[in-house]
Write a structure and sequence with these properties.
The complex is a heterodimer of chains A (174) and B (181). Helices cover 78% and strands 0% of the residues of chain A. By secondary structure, chain A is mainly alpha-helical. Chain A has a domain at 2-112. The longest helix of chain A is centred in the middle third of the chain and has 35 residues, at 61-95. Chain B starts with 9 loop residues before the first helix and ends with a helix. In chain B, helix 1 crosses helix 2 and helix 1 (10-23) packs across helix 4 (62-105). Chain B contains 7 helices and no strands. The chains are: A mainly alpha (174), B mainly alpha (181). The interface between A and B is large, with 106 and 90 residues.
């Protein structure tokens, strides 16, 4: 019961901090889950993130997966609900009056101000995951090759993730 | 327009987003746009873009916010709940199934190696995404300085986000507005 409350409190906070979606709060999520609450290791967290990327659905899936790993079915329900509820209530309240201020100068100023913060946050998420997942030269090679494919080709992301997993499974890398 | 305004039921809303959740491999947004604008014509292209603008402006998952904004527009709170549950039910079930399978077989060397490689590739995917998101900042010194400060605060100093985020967001908005950068 205590764990469920802690999960709810961690993910409820993340909900209102997630400017730029789940990927912007990966460092804070990892800090809470790994360093503060010791629910899992950094490597486990990175593996769950990877698993969530390989699944269909919004990129919030890592949230459900962490909840499930920590506290089973109810954990998944609590983290998913907690990450959704505060931001959803805000959206519900604001969407009715959005037309009044969507062209307001202060609204544009805030959006312009948030963009570089979001970019920095997602950069931080990426750096943290690279640091955790590049455990040896083979993993580094996978990251470089996959990164180049993501960036320079129009291949479907799932194809690249699947290719990397397959290369790992047959012992090509890893 | 000669067409009557769309009037989806709570069930329609659930069903529409359920398909988006199932199909949405590697990013849900294109699938959501296709369903909402092209297939079911619940919103025009412009309405969708405006709604997405709001949902990107607010905190939380963008597509989650779209389910709330669109659902409540047609059917109030029950509609919002229907869209949200429609989107989330299948992906959450699938991801937990994958988690269970992973736990079951994590002891086998090929599975473990597959996950080392998959994790590195997923991290690289986020690097590529981060680069694309940062691209509009190119050449704007002040904006780059804000992004760099954010990076240092979160990735290097590992500051709690609850403390760092208000300072960074408000500071960035004021500085960029003041200097029109």
């Amino acid at each position: 019961m205590n764990t469920l409350w802690e999960l709810a409190s961690v993910y409820g906070q993340l909900s209102l901090l997630a400017f730029g979606g789940a990927n912007a709060v990966i460092p804070e999520m990892q800090r809470q889950v790994v360093d503060v609450h010791h629910w899992m290791s950094a490597h486990d967290f990175a593996a769950l993130y990877a698993l969530a990327q390989a699944a269909p659905g919004p990129n919030m899936m890592v949230v459900s997966l962490v909840g499930w790993r920590v506290a089973g079915f109810w954990g998944a329900l609590v983290t998913t609900g907690a990450v959704a509820l505060p931001s959803s209530i805000l959206t519900l309240l604001v969407s009715g009056v959005w037309f009044r201020f969507k062209d307001a100068p202060w609204r544009k100023a805030i959006q312009a101000g948030l963009l570089p913060v979001t970019a920095g946050l997602i950069m931080a998420s990426a750096a943290l995951l690279i640091q955790t997942t590049v455990v040896d030269l083979a993993a580094a090679a996978v990251a470089v090759v996959a990164g180049a494919l993501f960036f320079f080709t129009k291949l479907h992301p799932l194809l690249i993730l699947g290719g990397a997993a397959a290369a790992g499974a047959i012992g090509l890398v890893g | 327009m000669s067409e009557t305004r769309p009037n989806p039921t709570v069930f329609d809303l659930f069903a529409g987003f359920f398909m988006v959740g199932v199909c949405g491999f590697g990013g849900v947004l294109p699938w959501a746009r296709r369903m909402i604008v092209d297939q079911r014509k619940w919103l025009t292209r412009i309405e969708f873009t405006e709604m997405l603008g709001l949902c990107q402006f607010l905190p939380g998952g963008n597509i989650m916010n779209v389910t709330i904004a669109l659902g409540s527009r047609f059917r109030g709170v029950p509609g919002a709940a229907a869209c949200f549950l429609g989107l989330m039910t299948a992906p959450v079930a699938i991801v937990i199934m994958l988690g269970a399978i992973y736990d079951q077989y994590a002891g086998y060397a090929p599975v473990r190696r597959a996950f080392v490689a998959l994790s590195a590739a997923a991290a690289a995917y986020l690097v590529a995404n981060a680069w694309k998101i940062a691209a509009p900042l190119w050449g704007r010194k002040l904006a780059i300085a804000v992004a760099a400060s954010t990076f240092v605060a979160i990735a290097v100093l590992r500051l709690p986000m609850l403390v760092a985020m208000p300072v960074l967001a408000i500071g960035s908005t004021l500085v960029l507005w003041r200097f029109r950068a």
